[in-house]
Design a protein that fits this description.
Bound molecules: ligand 9D3
Largest sheet: 5 strands, parallel
CATH topology of the largest domain: Alpha/beta knot
Length: 229
């Protein structure tokens, strides 16, 4: 899989992409990640990529030209079809099933929105999908792009140990995790639930299932409704 990221802040990405699992995935050749500076595709003086909105209003908008040029240049380098995703507050909410679907794409191009917004023609004529990572305001699409990359890369076959990746597909997929403990069996005055020390694997499995259900009912009843649909 190849992922190209188009941004006015390319330096923001190294800390995340050059660490741990994502770095290992790149070393193994499971994913190729490229970060492009949008300003390199500006045709204007001073590498300008923004301008004032027609009709007036406060703030600046990202211009269409540099974004189109960047995407067209990247599409030439990537072999095969690429899916173009615009990260923006108005996009569809990101979730695990979207991550799963995107992990099956050969090529992704992520455009990080910025300023007060983006020329509408990018949405209309360039982006295949618009994605938001949730209902809160970020200063730009960069962190959102990193969230996508992290959640997508770990789903690529061979990136994680099989045990982890199979977990989400299991029946427990729509439940929150059960409580977990490690040594010592008694920390300060707080003991580990006796069942976990019993060695009775059926009893342990039953307790975990029941705890996961209880916790999901209390905290995320929406997840239970989802799994029944
Ligand atoms: C004043 C209107 N704002 C729209 C809600 C303007 C605006 C705020 C924040 C325009 C761009 C941004 C920058 N955010 C993103 O580009 C973004 C984002 C987000 O803010 N929240 C959740 N997901 C995403 S994906 C990209």
């Amino acid at each position: 899989m190849r992922i190209d990221i188009i941004t006015i802040f390319p330096e923001m990405f190294s800390a995340v992409l050059d660490e741990s699992i994502i770095k290992r995935a790149q070393k193994k050749g499971r994913v190729k990640l490229f970060v492009h500076n949008l300003r390199d595709y500006s045709l204007e003086k001073h590498r300008k990529v923004d301008d004032r909105p027609f009709g007036g209003g406060s703030g600046m908008l990202m211009q269409a030209e540099p974004i189109f040029r960047a995407v067209e240049a990247v599409k030439k380098k990537a072999k095969g079809k690429a899916k173009v995703i615009l990260l923006c507050p108005q996009g569809e909410a990101f979730n695990q099933s979207k991550a799963k679907a995107l992990s099956n794409c050969g090529n992704l191009i992520l455009i990080c929105g910025h300023y007060e917004g983006i020329d509408e023609r990018v949405r209309q004529y360039l982006a295949d999908e618009e994605i938001s990572i949730g209902d809160y305001v970020l200063t730009g699409g960069e962190l959102a792009a990193m969230v996508l990359v992290d959640s997508i890369v770990r789903l690529i076959p061979g990136v994680l140990g099989d045990k982890n990746s199979l977990n989400f597909e299991s029946l427990e997929g729509n439940l929150l995790e059960y409580p977990q403990y490690t040594r010592p069996a008694k920390f300060r005055k707080w003991p580990v639930p006796e069942v976990l020390l019993s060695g009775d694997h059926d009893r342990i499995a039953g307790w975990r299932k029941q705890q996961a259900l209880k916790r999901t009912k209390e905290r995320r009843p929406d997840l239970l409704k989802k799994s029944k649909q």
